[in-house]
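Why does residue order matter? Because the sequence determines the fold. Keep that principle in mind as you read this record.
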Amino acid sequence: MRIIWGFIKLYLYNLFLFMNINANDIININSETTQPTWQNTNYGLPYFDNMTKRDITATVGQSAKLHCVVRNLGDRAVSWIRKRDLHILTVGILTYTNDQRYQSLHADSSDEWTLRITSPQPRDSGIYECQVSTEPKISLAFRLTVIVSRAEILGNSEVFIKSGNDINLTCVAYDAPGPPSFIYWYKGPSVINYSQRGGISVLTERQTKTSKLVISRAMSSDSGNYTCLPSNSDPASVMVHVINGEHPAAMQHGNSSSNSIHSLYCNRNSNFLTFHLSKWLLSSPTKMFSSIPTLLLVTVSTVMCINFSMR
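Structure:
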């Protein structure tokens, strides 16, 4: 009986030890799985969000912003460096340059650190680095291009319109970094007044950065200097002349250029013919015979010019 009881106690003791060990293992496993992930990985180190735009184009006079997003920054500092001279522009939200156009923008609890350049100039173009004070330091490069946006009125710098026809001017702001807020039209120093004269219409397409001015039934009083001024570009101007008469000499025609070239060509051939003919008559019989092909070629070319001009 004692032997049986001894086996029972030994069995219960071993069973207790086994259950105690398994309980400790379960506790250890649970404690490992509930530990924060960053304690076992490198996810706690700062890193850049590469989804941000890093090639920025800005227009002279309008603020440029470079957006740098840093995750898991912790107690590290973010600096902005100008690459060309390694000049430290900002550290945190403090500015470390005498040029107060540079400013670091950051909102509490935000991962974004923005370098703002007020009234940028073309000389400000170049590479800027967003730098984090890790060991070793990490940085992300941004390219800034500052352009001078100039509007353009399509066509010639001077426009000649026959009285009674429509004045049609189209202004485009090709290099503007975005759609302009407005595009104003001026005649001389004053904004075009729709109330003083009927038949004036302006159609502005902001997305295509285009504005079209139409003045119907042009009169002599409509002559003058016309300027278009987009909100984000330098202005462009054109001189408009309203001409009276059926065929004014100042009117531009599509074939005027080809006609003038043809006239110069014919005049040159006529001079050549006169020169070769006089030379041929004064030359010796042998030279007269050898010069006949050249004389015939110039003669035929001159006759063709005359026939074309008479059409």
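The mean pLDDT is 76.
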